[in-house]
Design goal:
alpha+beta, four-stranded antiparallel β-sheet, five-stranded mixed β-sheet, homodimer, 16 helices
Chain lengths: 468, 468
């Protein structure tokens, strides 16, 4: 049945590596950006009489980056024991200097500068020298991650990380950010370390079960890790046993990686790693929706100006509330998603089994032998103007049929979307107005916004490209 | 809160009794019919040299009948030890003679004659003298029931039985026949015996719980009766401890009696016993359906010529199968009922949440980590022409969306109603043809058949008349 796919995989790997490995030119560009930032930081540090060390972190430092990921992390490291205020104020001043003329402020666990220089997004992060025992924030851990990986990786492993990252990208699960809920670059590196290679990782993932717990350093010995961490995938961070390096991986991303890995092993193909990237035709979306008889509802609001992870956290919370609201009004929600250009618009997408319900809804009351409950039920509904029929006895219960407040989902959204407890940021946009879109309205929006068309098509046609 | 309703109930009782107690004329007519039958049976018995005794049974014998129930049970009783063949053949010959010129054969546990004489339906039943220890059939028990009640009842109790029967009629639960699934006349008598009066019965039923077990003769002492009989209401037959005299009472009838009893105690009204009997206007049905946005589907077939209880058994079995079929095709069945004139037509009625579904239906597959099941699922659906979308991973499962065979309930009925394993009797009618009715089709049928209009209105507007 299963022929050895080794040769096919080796061929795919070298083909993909040729595409994704940074070229000499890429390396030169990165080096130039780093030198430029380091130089500016050093000058400012001297001017301010601050003793700091500039260090490159992340995938560029580890040489596990792929050429399409143009992110550089530069840390400005103060000596151990530097007062927090000095790092916060002085550090930020140095970072701003490093960013040159144009930068924006970012906040993760503390402030940093994000600059766009020479084709790279450069994060310039003030930090303190830290020893392994006193890790507190993500910033503290980053330099240790860089060191941990650098010390253990050779050329082949770096290549395999690039391949694994590209595989994750191809199937849509690359990135620990909330928007994706997938596998971080560091997690990809740890998987290569754990399983030795790309092929080893894919083969292992093919056999993963409902939950998987990995502990490369053997921090936990006998303890069942599932009792410590509550995630489908647990990868104990080698440099900090309290942290699950796979905490961001959602069940959807975890299951998708398992499913795609198994599929890839059975039928290796470059399309897993390099899916076709054609422009989405709105007519394709219309066709996919109409052949399934599917109904998609969209709600478009303005986009709050907040950092990406905060935005997506708030968007997904609101999305969950919208789906819950629809369910409470008896609409069957088949799928939900959110899209944003992180600039102008956020669109909530809800696929419904049907967008219209009949006038009446059946409401169950108590069993007939519960005297008090029956009296209360009858007293409540006997003369209620919302009652369309009943009360009546069916089986052994009282029932009543009430007039729905909303018989169509669009009307429900018009009436209630503004009241469902959005975050303050989103609420500010909602209160400026929102648009409920369906049918033509969605297709028109897809015509205007390319990225949105793709999101809508993903809902309209769910079969993933890697499942040929 | 609760004022004593005694005076009101007493007033209702005398008003209702005046309506339902047989008049002198009714008694004279009944006596004349009985004498006529007895005379003819005696003559035939003499001619055939058979020694038999003719005895009136049932509510006429017990004097618990109400004037609208014009049923007379006449038993032709052979001496104990008469061979079975003699009873079967000779008895039936006598019964036919008793029926005079026009009769039909009925079968319960054995054959009897049903004749329509002088405005009464007369059942003439051959039977054997039997002692209490050797009861085998319903026929054996009947004379003992008559004796048991007659010995214990006085005038007031007979009146209270009439009132209770009329109450059961008014709320639609009078009759042990399958069509009704309610309270037999004998059960009404036993309830009056158990609780002493109509008021006592109503008060007791108001307090009945999920199950009620009554054992007037104390046949069972400590044994929990629920372990012996599997019914919501258990009334151990005083003359046969193996029999539940309330076995016919469905959960619906049981709960309706409880609910109506409680309601009657709170607000006594003659309408419980004598509901308004206006002709049903088809426009009333249309209005009730349209205000609820309800969809009712009907299937009309010819009526098999079989005894009533056999017909209704078969009809209800088919009705259950129709509802199951609709559910299997994702239609939400809100209510179901059957109607028949027991002559020309049977109509199955199904109330649906919606009569139309979209083109696609979501079909869940295995969780992604079940390797074999996944392979089988993908192999099955990857190139299936019914697949509209997928396979795809959602949450931790594989799914696929398939094209429905039927997107509307009427089409499903047209296509499948003929194949759902009806009884032989019904199947013979179905194979001659059937009609699927909805909207106007149903209203037209209601216009043509008065009894059907009432059944359809009961589905369209479920609030019972007694719940003012």
């Amino acid at each position: 049945m299963s022929r050895s796919p080794n040769a096919a995989i080796a061929e795919i790997k070298s083909m993909v590596l040729a595409k994704v490995t940074p070229t000499e030119e890429d390396y030169t560009s990165a080096r130039r950006v780093i030198d430029e930032v380091a130089c500016r930081v050093a000058a400012e540090a001297e001017a301010r009489n601050l003793r700091v060390r500039v260090e490159v972190e992340g995938s560029v430092a580890k040489d596990t980056w792929i050429s399409t990921d143009r992110d550089i992390d530069i840390f400005i490291i103060f000596p151990e024991g530097t007062p927090k205020e000095v790092i916060t104020e002085g550090g930020l001043a140095l970072a701003k200097a490093g960013g040159g003329g144009s930068w924006t402020l970012g906040y993760a666990e503390h402030a940093y500068v994000e600059a766009y220089i020479g084709g790279f997004t450069v994060d310039i992060v003030p930090a303190s020298e830290v020893s392994a025992g006193r890790l507190v924030t993500a910033v503290d851990r980053t330099p240790l991650h860089t060191r941990f990986i650098t010390e253990r990786f050779d050329e082949r492993m770096r290549d395999d990380v690039r391949i694994l990252k590209q595989f994750m990208k191809g199937i849509g699960v690359y990135g620990a950010e909330l928007k994706i809920g997938g596998f971080s670059g560091y997690l990809c590196e740890l998987l290569i370390l754990q399983y030795g290679s790309f092929e080893g990782t894919i083969a292992a993932a093919s056999g993963w079960g409902e939950r998987t717990a990995l502990d490369y350093m053997g921090h936990y010995k006998d303890l069942p890790l599932g009792e410590v961490f509550d995630s489908p995938l647990i990868m104990v961070d080698p440099i900090d046993r309290r942290r699950n390096a796979a905490a961001a991986v959602t069940r959807q991303a975890y299951a998708t990686f398992i499913a795609a890995s198994r599929r890839f092993l059975r039928a290796p193909a470059a399309e897993f790693l390099l899916p076709e990237q054609g422009a989405t035709e709105p007519s394709e979306i219309e066709l996919a929706l109409s052949r399934r008889g599917a109904t998609v509802l969209g709600i478009e609001v303005g986009c709050p100006r907040v950092p990406s992870d905060i935005l997506w956290g708030e968007v997904y919370r609101s999305l969950g509330k919208v789906a819950k609201l629809l369910g409470e009004h008896d609409f069957t929600v088949r799928d939900s998603a959110a899209w944003s250009d992180e600039d102008e618009a956020v669109v909530f997408l809800l696929e419904l089994e049907s967008a219209e319900l009949r006038e009446g809804r059946v409401h169950a009351g108590p069993k007939v032998w519960f005297a008090e409950e029956t009296e209360a039920f009858l007293a409540k509904y006997e003369r209620d103007t919302r009652v369309l029929d009943g009360p009546y006895v069916k089986g052994d219960r009282w029932y009543v049929e009430l007039k729905r407040k909303y018989t169509d989902a669009a009307g429900l959204m018009e009436g209630e979307f503004g009241r469902i407890g959005h975050s303050k940021d989103l609420m500010a946009e909602v209160s400026k107005g929102f648009r409920v879109l369906s049918g033509r309205g969605l297709i028109d929006l897809a015509r205007r916004k390319e990225g949105f068309a793709e999101a809508l098509l993903r809902m309209a046609r769910k079969r993933p490209p890697w499942l040929r």
